[in-house]
Amino acid sequence: MNAHEIDYHIYGEEMQFVEIELDPYETVIAEAGSFMMMDDGIELATIFGDGSHKEENTGLWGKVLSAGKRLITGESLFMTAFTHAGAGKKRVSFGAPYPGRIIPLHLDELEGKVICQKDAFLCAAKGVSVGIEFSRRLGRGFFGGEGFIMQKLEGDGLAFLHAGGAIVKKELAIGESLRIDTGCLVAFTRDIDYDIEMIQGVRNVLFGGEGLFYARLQGPGAVWVQSLPFSRLADRVVAASRQYGGKNKGEGSVLGSLGNLLDGDNW
Q1: What pLDDT does 267 receive?
Q2: Residues 2 and 53 sit within 8 Å (Cβ to Cβ)
Q3: pLDDT tens digits for 70-98?
């Protein structure tokens, strides 16, 4: 293997975190802001790009190019590397940014490449390359929810994604297809054919409430789907804050809005 061989354990239910176990001189890379805790003897270093072996072989220009690609995906120029510099085994943990599940991916078992939404990556063994995947189809680019750019994870090591709500993995056979809400798509393997289709029927378009497009994925390969995209959660929170105006005195009571009126809030 080119990537470091790390061990891990995932804790929690709704708000999970992953604990990575490192042997001496093993390294795990992570997105800035995902760090939770670590043992003594682990050294932290801020690096350009993802610190993959492929990037290191290209010198300074390769690091700058990798960092620039991360800017395109909306991520920071830098990533954080955690290296066990002592003896024995040490542990470092990374927390999920919102309620959902952490998904471990063994890239060597997935033909060495997985394509995912831009904010799904959490951490990975050093040697895993975190790059960008451009869409070559206009429909997918304009209406796919992720634009023309998604992230790609390449290598033969362990990588961890995070997604909202419950997560399901669907295995698609050759020619088998699956239609998904564009926001619910988390990741898919390299041989999946991904495109965007418009919902049929004028009534469905105008009154269906499900948007105008959905993602169509055709096998062979694996697809990961989330039940609660963060964008959907954020939209509900914003809508609720507008509806109730930050007032919660009537929440959970029989009177509801009438209670607010009697309180004098609406006078």
Answers
A1: 42
A2: yes
A3: 555 555 667 899 999 989 999 999 998 88
Does residue 259 fall inside a structural domain? Answer: no
The helix/strand/coil state of 176 is: coil
Domain that holds residue 228: 7-245
CA dihedral 103, 107, 109, 114 (to 10 degrees): 80
Residue 255, in any domain of the structure? no
Alpha-helical regions (H) of the chain: 53-56, 59-72, 138-143, 202-207, 230-244, 257-263
The answer to whether residue 90 is domain-embedded is: yes
Q: Is the pLDDT of residue 129 over 80?
A: yes
With respect to residue 250, please indicate whether it lies within any of the assigned structural domains: no
Cα separation, 86 vs 89, whole angstroms:
8
Nearest to 217 by CA among 257, 186, 252: 186
Q: Write out pLDDT tens, residues 12-56.
A: 988 899 999 999 999 999 988 899 999 999 999 988 766 665 555
| 155 close to 174: Cβ distance less than 8 angstroms | no
Task: Evaluate the CA torsion angle 124, 230, 96, 62 in order and state its sign.
Answer: positive
pLDDT band with cut points at 50, 70 and 90 for residue 204: very low
Cα separation values, 85 from 27, 82, 141, 261, Å: 9, 9, 44, 64
Q: Which residues have CB under 8 Å from 182's CB, separation 6+?
A: 143, 144, 145, 146, 196, 211, 213, 214, 215
167 within 8 A of 127, measured Cβ to Cβ = no
Total domains in the fold of the chain: 1
Q: Name the strands in the sheet holding 213-218, side by side, starting at the edge strand that comes first in the sequence.
A: 177-180, 213-218, 193-198
Q: What's the CATH number where 137 sits?
A: 3.60.160.10
Higher pLDDT, 64 or 257: 64
pTM (two decimals)? 0.77
